[in-house]
Amino acid sequence: MKSLLLLPLILGLGMALIAPSARAEGEARKPSPELQKLAPWTGKWRIEETVSASPFGPAGKGSYRCVEKFAHGGYVVESQGKGRGPVAPLSWTEILYYDTAAAAFRSFYCDSDGVAATSNMELTGSSLKGTWTSEAGGKRYTFRTVSTIAADGKSYRYEWDYTEDGVTWKPLLRGVAKRVGSVR
After folding, report:
1. Is the model's pTM score more than 0.85?
2. Which one of 7, 79, 142, 159 has the largest count of C-beta atoms within 10 Å of its C-beta?
3. CATH number given to 27-181
4. What is the pairing mode between strands 76-84 and 116-124?
């Protein structure tokens, strides 16, 4: 059992040793300039959202605080948030990165409700759009989200929708984030 606990550590150390040697000698790796396009979303935010009744839970309101910042040398945008949802407290972590091989943004999200999802993301102008799949009650659902930052950068609005059949989309939540501070 103990060896299973050490496996992630061993794999992580192995990747740390192998990754630098995969670059050409003397070539400094730099974060993707594409990722810098997410800079308007970085900051400290106060979030208020309305959740619709769905297979994932009851309707209600949510109120959160969130910090979104460049991390790990600017290779990712990390979002850490917490607050109270319609039923209970909720905390989350999301990592957004730019996949240069696919020329696309990707996201990994996990939260204190046990949700973990990987999303395909696309940045179009001032809107970041994403899609992913997840299960609830033995059924598979597809989700889509769009987050649009205001021209002045002081707020953004977001929507999450879901579908079971790929045709009929239903609202899951709607929210507004207001900037309450900046990050370095």
Report:
1. no
2. 79
3. 2.40.128.20
4. unpaired
